[in-house]
UniProtKB/TrEMBL annotation:
Basic residues bias (residue ranges): 254-265
This protein's name: Putative regulator of Ras-like GTPase activity (Roadblock/LC7/MglB family)
Region (Disordered): 229-290
Pfam annotation, one family: DUF4388
Domain of life: Bacteria
Organism of origin: Deinococcus budaensis
InterPro entries cross-referenced by the UniProt entry: PatA-like_N (IPR025497)
Residues of the PatA-like N-terminal domain: 134-233
Biased composition (Pro residues): 272-283
């Protein structure tokens, strides 16, 4: 996340008795380095500094008014359109009755009583220290949203992708609203649409839509559902058309029939019926034909290759393999940085030993996966017990989302079929 390294800009509005400024001088030494501008009221701030775009604006409500004045609402309207990164704090003198309406229209903002001068300074300092703005790089959308949930952030994440753009609105780490374009989707539908996008760019803004009291499913549930939809879309068969699947080991690479139209048909390859098989003479002994052993080329390599391609599309994936743990043989490998043949044999020993241990302990139930955590990597062994196989995945710890990776392995394992 982009750190705040330049001078902080602070706007004090309506601080006519300099109570806020004095509280900052007494309790926040760092405030001496901030760029502070003061205006007697919101109208003056809007009139004299419409392009200021401060990091934080402090609205002081003084006098007998029990509502946030129209000038303050006009300033918030302006900020909503032109100051996407500006945070707000309301310093009130008494009960402000229209705050729920203000939050619903402009998003949630901290409110503090001006009589508590220390709390005023602490609230402003906390907002400055947690400023979140700018672009985010080097992290996936699911991973970033989980970070925001853990940190209980209140903000908006603007997401841009080839498929469109949208915003995800968080309040104390909870996803409470969303918008996706095209389609003008809102709420859960928008959140799920955005979470299925790939190759996204992220930008942090203040949320103007997290105070409407909306309730969405938990973030983890939404991420899981979005991942399921994305998997289904990626694994859906192509529409029937001018395509030819002419190589049993390369069904993932398809080409039009027209590209083979010029090739000659093999002898006997006409459209007529196939020749009758030659029968042995009557009375001849019919010895049963031996059943050939399963050869490597007889394995459905298209399925193996397609599965490994999908595994390598998991965020943070460095290497992957599909392994027969009975023999220790890798049926397919992809990736770099690990000797996957050695890993296949070694991890097969691990799986067999773990299965023997569970049996000796009398523990019932199947092992789903085995996780090995290193300093900068995760090694995940996902068992496919009904076929005597496991998927082996090496993840970069900094780039991976472990929960999402395990979920996707579970989803992919269901579709593996070795003939």
């Amino acid at each position: 996340m982009t750190a705040t390294t330049r001078a902080v800009s602070l706007l004090l509005i309506g601080d006519q008795d300099a109570l806020v400024a004095g509280s900052l001088r007494r309790h926040v030494p760092a405030a001496g380095d901030w760029a502070v501008r003061a205006f007697p009221d919101a109208s003056a701030a809007l009139r004299e500094a419409p392009d200021l775009m401060p990091d934080l604006a402090v609205l002081s409500c003084t006098g007998a008014a029990d509502t946030l004045c129209e000038a303050a609402l006009a300033l918030l309207d302006h900020a909503k359109r032109h100051w996407p990164h500006t945070s707000f704090v309301v310093v009130k003198a008494g009960h402000v009755t229209n705050l729920p309406e203000v939050f619903g229209r402009y998003g949630v903002m901290p409110v503090v009583d001006r009589a508590e001068t220390l709390a005023v300074a602490q609230t402003i300092e906390r907002e400055i220290s947690t400023l979140s703005r700018g672009s985010v790089q080097g992290v996936s959308l699911p991973g970033f949203l989980q970070m925001m949930e853990w940190d209980r952030k209140s903000l908006s994440v603007r997401v841009e992708a080839a498929a469109g753009w949208g915003r995800l609105h968080l309040l104390d780490g909870r996803l409470v609203d969303a918008y996706a374009h095209p389609g003008d989707l809102t709420g859960e539908a928008a959140a799920l649409r955005i979470m299925t996008w790939g190759d996204v760019s992220l930008r942090l803004e203040r949320s103007y839509h997290n105070g409407r009291g909306n309730e969405l499913p938990p973030l983890t549930s939404l991420l899981m559902e979005a991942m399921r939809r994305k998997d289904e879309a990626e694994r859906a068969p192509d529409p029937a058309g001018d395509l030819l699947l002419d190589d049993p080991e390369e069904t993932v690479f398809r080409r039009p029939k027209s590209s083979t139209a010029h090739l000659k048909k093999p002898p006997g390859g006409g459209d007529g019926p196939p020749p009758e098989p030659t029968l042995p003479p009557p009375g001849a002994d019919l010895a049963p034909a031996p059943t050939p052993a399963l050869r490597q080329e007889e394995i459905n390599m298209a399925n193996v290759k397609e599965t490994l391609v999908s595994v390598m599309n998991i965020d943070g994936a460095n290497a992957a393999a599909l392994v027969d743990y009975g023999s220790g043989m890798a049926l397919g490998t992809m990736g770099v940085g690990v000797d996957l043949e050695v890993a296949a044999a070694g991890n097969s020993d691990v799986v067999r030993a773990k299965l023997r241990t569970m049996e000796a302990l009398g523990i019932e139930g199947q092992i789903e996966d085995i996780l090995i955590t290193l300093q900068d990597q995760y090694h995940v062994i996902y068992l496919i017990r009904d076929q005597g196989l496991f998927l082996y995945l090496v993840l970069d710890k900094e780039k991976a989302n472990l929960a999402m990776a395990r979920y996707k392995l579970r989803s992919l394992a269901k579709d593996i079929s070795i003939a």
